Every structure is written in C-alpha cells, then in structure tokens.
Amino acid sequence: MPQQHDPFPVIAAADRCPCGTGLGFGECCGRFLSGGATAPTAQQLMRSRYTAFIVGDVAYLLATWHPSTRPAHLELDPGIAWRSLEIVRSERGGPLDREGTVEFAARYRADGERGVLHETSRFVRDDRWRYVAAIG
C-alpha cells in the first residue's frame, strides 16, 4: 500500500484512480506506488507521480526521480489540492525506449484559487523509468 500521510487523502483500491485513466486505483497507479510493479512507460510513470503528489507519497516521488537531478529531500504542500491531470502529448517513452517526454496539464486549487501546472517532463529508462526534469 502507498505511504499516505495526513493531511493527504487516502485512496482505496476500488476508488477511481485520480490520474484520469478511469481505472480503479488498485489496478492503475496503486500497484506502482505500493512497489508491486514498475511503470512500463514514461506516461504511466508521469500518471503515478501525479497520484503520489495527491496522496503525499514522498518516498515514491524520490525513488522515481533520476539520481542526477533528484533533490536530497522533498516537502509537499498539503494546501495544494490536485484536481485533474490531462496528458497533452507523449513522445517516445514506450517499454523499449530509453527516453521519453510527456507534456501535461495538472489542475489544482490552493488558497481558494485555481491554477494549472503545464509542463513537459523528460524521462529516462535504465532499470526502470525515472523522471529527470521539466524541459523547455
């Protein structure tokens, strides 16, 4: 089970996954956050990392961050409520690729205001897919 910390929400396996696939959490991102599987594509890693931000799973975020750019520690703001994820486009990042990019728009609410984080992220695959950095 993912490491979820107050005041972050707990998502049950049968609940719809917040990443937007329409699948249940347990069959979607939950299996990656629990350590039961690794994301086979850059887009699936992007989706699972988005979900990790929602549930406050710092350990997963750090473990899926490439060592060359990974921060020493990470603190999440529980005042940010992530509302939806839209994958704008993906390039490469498949099970046989070594690199990939995912452009996304993540909508959130913070301090009563709505916002959108629009980013193109770079991923690389060695033993598994890892987030490197935002590009552009």
From TrEMBL:
Superkingdom field: Bacteria
Entries under Gene3D superfamilies matching the protein: 3.10.450.50
InterPro entries xref list: NTF2-like_dom_sf, SEC_C_motif, YchJ-like, YchJ-like_M
Sequence ranges assigned to domain YchJ-like middle NTF2-like in this UniProt record: 41-133
Sequence similarity: Belongs to the UPF0225 family.
Protein name from the UniProt record: UPF0225 protein EDM22_08135
Natural source organism: Agromyces tardus
